[in-house]
Amino acid sequence: MRKYFQCLLPVFLFVVLSSFALHKFYVGIYQINYSDKKKEVQITARVFIDDIEKALQTKYKRKIYLATPKEITETNELLKSYLSEKMQLTVNRKAKTLKFLGKETEDNVLICYLTTLVPEKISSISIHNSVLTEIYPEQQNIVHFNIYGNKKSLLLTDSETEGEVEF
User: Fold this and answer.
1) How far apart, in whole angstroms, are the C-alpha atoms of residue 93 and residue 124?
2) What does the alpha-carbon distance between residue 71 and residue 144 come to, in Å, rounded to a whole number?
3) Strands 87-91, 162-166: parallel, antiparallel or unpaired by DSSP?
4) Which InterPro entries does the annotation name (predicted)?
5) Which of 99, 7, 9, 87 is nearest to 47 (CA)?
6) Does a structural domain hold residue 16?
């Protein structure tokens, strides 16, 4: 019996450990800062390239080739449209229009930059963020705020796509 157990243990461990190696985490990181000098909220969104590419290709029914030499010329417009549908910002109970500034890549991460003017003092920010949740129900969008030096964070998921912080 012991010899049987010794033979099966390596097989069992291999199966268990390989299943952990195959598991992928679905996480996006969003940094929201306020620039007092520019009177604007600045958003930096970080998502995995393969995940956002899959979402764009599914939604727009075309190959995107994101972050490759074959990337299509309409990518920025598609990203702008996708992000404006999936992410909304409300400052002091007033909806804000996000302006897509551009994107860059860092290893396997796509970094998108957005901004919106906020001339008045910020007392609260609400965010709706359902980026990638239509593709990956286990997607987690972590939102970090730095407003007037006050740092707060939210964890948004498929079941909870909205949150609010007060300053």
Assistant:
1) 7
2) 30
3) unpaired
4) DUF6702
5) 87
6) no
* Domain contains 127: yes
User: pLDDT for 25-45, tens place per residue?
Assistant: 899 999 999 999 999 999 999
Domain housing 86 = 21-166
Question: Does some domain include residue 113?
Answer: yes
d(CA 162, CA 155): 9
Element (H, E) at 47: strand 40-48
Structure tokens at 89: 């910002």
- Read off the pLDDT of residues 33-76 as tens digits, 9 standing for 90 and up: 999 999 999 999 999 999 999 999 999 999 999 999 999 999 99
β-pairing, 27-35 with 40-48?
antiparallel
Confirm whether 129 is domain-assigned: yes
Phi, psi torsion values for 16, nearest 5 degrees: -65, -50
Domain count, the chain: 1
